[in-house]
C-alpha cells in the first residue's frame, strides 16, 4: 500500500510509520522536520495546517491521521489536495463525558469530559469535521497508549524509580484501575480495518483486561529486576503532583474491536519490550515531570 502517516517522528506516529514500512508498504510521513525521520519512509516536510501544495494530486491508499488534535487539523489536511481511498483517524476516549455510565460504548453520547477538558472537546470536534467531510472514514478511540518510543513520562517513571532503588508512592491503596493499548496492537488493528473494511466506523480500542495502579507499578519494577516497595499517599495530596495518571478511573467497552481482533499483546510482554528499549533511550522521553523532586520535598520527608 501507499500510505500517508501524519507525524512520524514521535511515539505512536513513529512506531506506526516504521511498522508499515517494515511490512513493505510505501510510507510517506507528513511533519515539520523538527526531529529525525523514521527509517524506511519518504518524508514530506510541511506544516499540516499549511501543506503548501506538497500533497496536491498525490494518491494514497490510506491516510493514517495520528496527529490531528483539532478541527482545523482535519480541514487543512482534507483541503491539501491529497487523494485517498481510506482515512483512519486516531481520536481519544476523552470524547466520552466522565458522567457517562461505564464501560463507555461507541453508541454513547459524546461531549465535554471535565478531566480532559479542551483536549477531549478538540478531538470530538475533529471527529465531527471528519465524518461530515469523509463519511467513510474510520475513527479509533484508545485509552492509554504504551510501548516503544513512548515520549510521555508514564512507564518511564516507575522504571526510573526501580533503577534508582526508590520506593514508589501510589495514590491510596493503589486500587484505581487503568486500561492500556500497545502501539503494535493499534497497527495490527489498522491493518484489519484496511483489509476488511468493517461496517462499523467508530471503534473503542484497548486491552480487555484492566490493571490496578498497584499491579502496574509492581509489574514495572519486576521488569526492571526489582521488587517494589510501595508507599500509600493520602488522597488529600493532589495526585498529578507525584503520580503519572489523573485521579480518574474509566473503562472502554472494546467488544467491537475484539470481534475483529480477539487477542492483544499481554501487558507484561509489551512492558518488557518498552523497558528494554527505554533503558538505552532515556533521552527519548521529552516530557519529563518533576515527580521525584516533589515526592522528596513534600511526601517522603513527612512519612
SSE order and pairing:
Layout: E1 2-6, H1 11-22, E2 26-31, E3 42-45, E4 59-65, H2 71-78, E5 83-90, H3 118-133, E6 138-141, E7 144-146, H4 156-163, E8 168-171, E9 177-178, E10 180-182, H5 183-196, E11 202-204, E12 211-212, H6 213-223, E13 230-233, H7 255-260, H8 267-278, H9 291-298
Parallel strand pairs: 1-2, 1-4, 2-3, 4-5, 5-6, 6-11, 7-10, 8-13
Antiparallel strand pairs: 9-12
Helix pairs in contact: 1-5, 2-3, 4-6
Overview of this protein structure:
There is one protein chain. This protein is of the alpha/beta class and 303 residues long. The protein contains nine helices and 13 strands. Helix 2 links the parallel strand 4 and strand 5. Helix 1 packs across helix 5.
Q: How many E-type strands?
A: 13
Biggest sheet layout:
7 strands, parallel
Q: Give the overall pLDDT as a whole number.
A: 96
The end-to-end distance, rounded to whole angstroms, is: 58 Å
> What percent of residues are in strands?
15-25%
Q: Would you list the SSEs in sequence order as H and E?
A: EHEEEHEHEEHEEEHEEHEHHH
- Determine the structural class based on helices, strands and strand pairing: alpha/beta
Q: Kindly report the CATH topology of the largest domain.
A: Rossmann fold
Q: Which spans have pLDDT < 50 for at least 5 consecutive residues?
A: none
Please write the CATH class name of the largest domain: Alpha Beta
Number of domains: 2
C-alpha Rg (nearest Å): 20 Å
Q: Residue share in helices?
A: 25-40%
